[in-house]
Design brief:
The protein has helices spanning 3-8, 12-17, 22-40, 61-85, 92-117, 146-171, 181-201, 249-254, 262-270; strands at residues 232-233, 236-237. With 275 residues, the protein is mostly helical. It folds into two domains: 3-207 and 260-270, Ferritin (Up-down Bundle), CATH 1.20.1260; 220-256, no CATH class. It has a two-stranded antiparallel sheet with strand order 1-2. A hairpin with a 2-residue loop joins strand 1 (232-233) and strand 2 (236-237).
Length: 275
């Protein structure tokens, strides 16, 4: 498979162009998943229990992929409902959500095909509650108004994408030595582009600064950003570097993204899971 051509589907231009169909993306991912899955995941491993996120993710490829699949289920359903809600303004916001929706569905199909190809039962799709018991109303079901609902759609999308980026990075170690490491890193890069695009729709910079969740983000999303203020990389305080003088703490934190553990990603996703 031509990896450069694969990644080209997810450039900023193609993200908002809307030309790539779900079928086109699926055909590319399907061939890759069937080849990679058999070599990637050991046979005989027990599948994750049917109830999603019922236990902490184990340190193995199957646990990492099941966690990734659960997060992709969440994002896929969220964008699908957003597109059906009538809340999204026409133009760029709707185009971006449509293209991201295609990507998330492709990720779900890829992960399911990979697990099934290895003889592992994919974790079942949970039942989601994007209102978190009434805290949010992103689809304007209770009549909060389109402007308020749209702001919540953007805020939740930012939280989901930032969680996905950090979670994929956090699971990379569990995929070392498997053929799934490269595809997971490809998905990770795409999720990062989603996160940046959503932030720009919100009028923000395309990256995280310190552990700041960003203007207008609900306090409930703070766990997504905790730890991003780290300035020590490889044992080096990066604020002490810089050929023209020390970097500021802000610039140092922006230059690196932090991994999110499986347990932390599980806790965040569980806020939106009914069962």
């Amino acid at each position: 498979m031509n990896i450069i051509k694969f990644l080209d589907e997810f450039t900023t231009d193609n993200l908002i162009d809307g030309k790539t169909s779900r079928r086109d993306v699926f055909s590319k991912l399907g061939a890759l998943s069937k080849k990679a899955a058999i070599a990637a995941v050991p046979f005989g491993l027990a599948s994750v229990p049917k109830k999603a996120l019922a236990q902490s993710m184990s340190a193995d490829p199957v646990g990492a992929l099941q966690l990734a699949l659960t997060l992709e289920y969440l994002e896929d359903e969220f964008y699908d409902l957003a597109l059906q809600s009538g809340v999204l303004p026409s133009g760029r916001p709707e185009i971006v959500y449509m293209q991201i929706s295609k990507h998330e569905q492709a990720h779900v199909d890829f992960l399911r095909a990979g697990l099934e190809g290895a003889g592992v039962t994919p974790v079942e799709k949970p039942t989601f509650d994007f209102t978190v018991g009434g805290m949010f109303d992103p689809f304007n079901d209770n009549g909060v108004g389109q402007e308020t609902a749209y702001a919540q759609l953007l805020a939740l999308a930012q939280a989901f994408e930032d969680t996905g980026v950090r979670a994929y990075k956090g699971q990379a170690g569990n995929l070392l030595g498997s053929d799934f490491l490269t595809p997971a890193l490809q998905i990770h890069s795409v999720e990062a582009r989603h996160a940046s695009e959503i932030r720009r729709l919100r009028g923000l910079k395309g990256w995280i600064t310190n552990n700041d969740r960003g203007m207008g983000m609900p306090e409930a999303t703070q766990a997504v950003y905790d730890g991003e203020e780290n300035i020590v990389q490889g044992g080096v305080d990066v604020t002490t570097l810089g050929s023209d003088g020390p970097f500021t703490m802000e610039a140092s934190s922006e230059a690196y993204d932090e991994p999110l553990s499986g347990d932390d990603a599980t806790a965040i996703a569980s806020l939106f899971i009914v069962n």
